[in-house]
Amino acid sequence: MHPISVTELPFTLTESSVLAVIPARYASTRFPGKPLADIGGRPMIEHVYRRAAAASVDGVLVATDDQRIADAVRGFGGVAVMTRDDHPSGTDRIAEVAAAVPCRLVVCVQGDEPLLEPALIDAAVAPMLADPALCMSTLSRPLAGPDEFATPHVVKVVTDTAGNALYFSRSAIPHQRAGQPQPGVARAHVGLYVYRRDILLRLAALPPADLERAESLEQLRALANGIGIRVVDTRHVSIGVDTPDDLARVRQLLLASSRS
């Protein structure tokens, strides 16, 4: 496999650029071939790509190890680069891209968020552009209620008074004493990240942290190594596609929006 080359890209990147990268793989335990799942006559990866391209970024590309995904992206006019097939995570995959191209910020856009609002990317990028001391940023939204607070399927985040992450957990945090109402301190984490290029490369070179292994949450590697994460609050609820049932729900939502 030839190395990623900046000369192959149809857009120009410099040391001040903001690059959105969508990591995508075909293999999935719960949903093989998910990036190519049809939604309204287009593959899911196209929906994600076009929404990312509508944000205020200097370029968008898909990083994949599967030729079928690369062909699909190029088929709708998108940019795809081939990466190694041994990456354990999306973070490692986008780090391979970041190591090969110049940029200031790298936005990691999840490939299974076909309803992602472009404004959310802009909201996460804004503090990174305004404050060069920030290393990373991400998003959160209000919890829908006690069920989301309790379920391990929704990642919770708590922050300090400046809006920097204190901790992410699948558990209900902070602990509620018996008889106390839900404190309203935690918010639901939205898994979109913005990294400074050097921070992303540093993170990818670090071994998994104990907290990261315990919670199965990659962002805890940053906190465990003293890398701060600014959390930007939003009220938008995006729907990630993890299962065929999620896909059916997204199809219905997009169909309803096209009729309205």
Textual characterization of the structure:
This protein is an alpha/beta fold and 260 residues long. It has 2 domains: 1-116, Spore Coat Polysaccharide Biosynthesis Protein SpsA, Chain A (Alpha-Beta Complex); 119-190 and 197-237, Spore Coat Polysaccharide Biosynthesis Protein SpsA, Chain A. Helix content is 33%, strand content 21%. It has 9 helices and 11 strands.
Itemize the secondary structure elements and their pairings.
Blueprint lengths: L17 E7 L13 E2 L2 E2 H10 L5 E6 L2 H9 L4 E3 L7 H11 L4 E4 L9 H13 L5 E6 L4 H5 L5 E4 L5 E5 L17 E10 H9 L4 H6 L3 H6 L4 E5 L10 H16 L1
Parallel strand pairs: 1-4, 1-6, 4-5, 7-11
Antiparallel strand pairs: 2-3, 6-10, 7-10, 8-9, 8-10
Helix pairs in contact: 3-6
Q: What CATH architecture of the largest domain do you see?
A: Alpha-Beta Complex
Helicity, as a percent range:
25-40%
User: What do the pLDDT scores average to?
Assistant: 91
Largest β-sheet summary: 9 strands, mixed
When the domains are counted, the total is: 2
**Can you tell me the CATH class of the largest domain?**
Alpha Beta
Shape: globular
Q: Low-confidence parts, pLDDT < 50 over ≥5 residues?
A: none
Radius of gyration: 18 Å
CATH superfamily placement of the largest domain = Spore Coat Polysaccharide Biosynthesis Protein SpsA, Chain A
Number of helices: 9
Q: Return the string of H and E elements.
A: EEEHEHEHEHEHEEEHHHEH
Report the CATH topology name of the largest domain: Spore Coat Polysaccharide Biosynthesis Protein SpsA, Chain A
Q: Strand pairing plus helix content: what structural class?
A: alpha/beta
Number of strands: 11
Distance between the termini: 46 Å
Residue share in β-strands: 15-25%
